[in-house]
Fold:
Amino acid sequence: MPVQPILRYPHPVLKKLCHEVKQIDTSIHDLVHDLVDTMHEGPGSVGVAASQIGVTLRVCVVDVSKNRHGKENNHGLLCMINPEITSRSGVATMREGCMSVPDYTGDVERATEISLQFCEPDGTKREIIASGFEAVAIQHEMDHLDGILFLDRVTSIKTGLFRRKNY
Amino acid sequence: MTQQPEILHYAVSVVGKDRPGIVAGVTEGLFNLGCNIADSSCTMLAGEFAMILIVSLKSPFSKTRLIDELKPVCAKMGMTLGVRTLHQDEVARQESDGEICMISVYGADQPGIVYRVTRELAACNVNITDLNTKLIGTPEEPVYVMMLEVALPEGQNAEGVEQLLADLKSELKVEIGVRVVTPVAF
Structure:
C-alpha cells in the first residue's frame, strides 16, 4: 500500500470535522493500510490520522512501541475506527510537534490516562485504557479527527530550536 | 532569468515603560514599511515592556529608513529603540541534535546565581536558548527563580547536567532540577 503525503497546514482538510465511518469495507481497509505505511515512513512518527492524508473519516493509527517514551507501556499498533474517549484523568504537559505543522513545537496539556473504545478494521469493538505517552499520542491523533491541531491547545509559547531554520 | 531580490534582516529592540498600545504602535510602523516580522519575543519585565523582533525586508532598504519610521513612534511612547543590521550568516538558526532541557533553579536570593550557573553550563558547551528570572517571595525572605531552556551538546544528557550542577547546588543552597523537554513529533 502506498505511503501518502502528509498534508500541511494551511490545507483546509486539517481543520475539518471528520465523519463517522458507517461501514467498514475494503476502502476502509485500504485507508488503514495507507495510514500505517505513512506512519512508518515518517521519521520517528508514532501516529497518523486520516485527515492528515486528506480523508475526512474518523480513522487513525497509533504505535508508540518503538518510541523511547512509549516502549515500556503500549498496546502495540492500534488501528482505530470511530474512536471515542469515554473517560480521562490526570494532566501532564508535553512539548508536541506535528508532521502537519512542521518546524514548530509547543507545550500541550493532555490527560495522562484515558479509556477509549473503537472498532478494529475487522469490525470488532475494543475497549482499552491507555496511559502515559501512548495516551498523549492517541489524544493528539484523535484531535485531528475534530479538526484540532496542537496549536489550538498550546499552553506555553516558549518554543525550542525546531522552528524554521531560515526566515 | 529574473533575479530574486535580496532579503535584508534587522534586529529591532524596543524597551520602555509598559502601557497599552506599544505593540500596535511599533508594528504599525513596520507594516507601513512592508516589513515581515520573522521572529519575535515581547514580554513585560517589572513595569518595562521589552520587544525584540527580527524583521525582514526586500532590498533595496536601509537601516536609516527603518529608524526614521520607528523613532518618532517610539519617542511618542517614551520607548528606547535599537536597530542592528544582520548579516546573512547570522540569520540561519543553528539546530542542535542534542536533548532540549528545562533547568529550574530557585532558592534564597543571593548575588551570582545566574553567573555561577551559566558559567558551569558554558564550560560544558551547553547552549542557553531561553532564560528568564524572577525575584519572588517577601522583602524579608526574597526568593530567586531562574528558568533556563538549553540545548545539550551531543553525548550529554539531563542526568549529566544535574551532576554538573550538584556542587553548585549545595554551595549556593538552591534547588536545581533538570528535565528533558525535547519535542515529540506526532
About this structure: The CA atoms of residues 114 and 130 of chain A lie 5 Å apart. The first helix of chain A runs from residue 26 to 41.
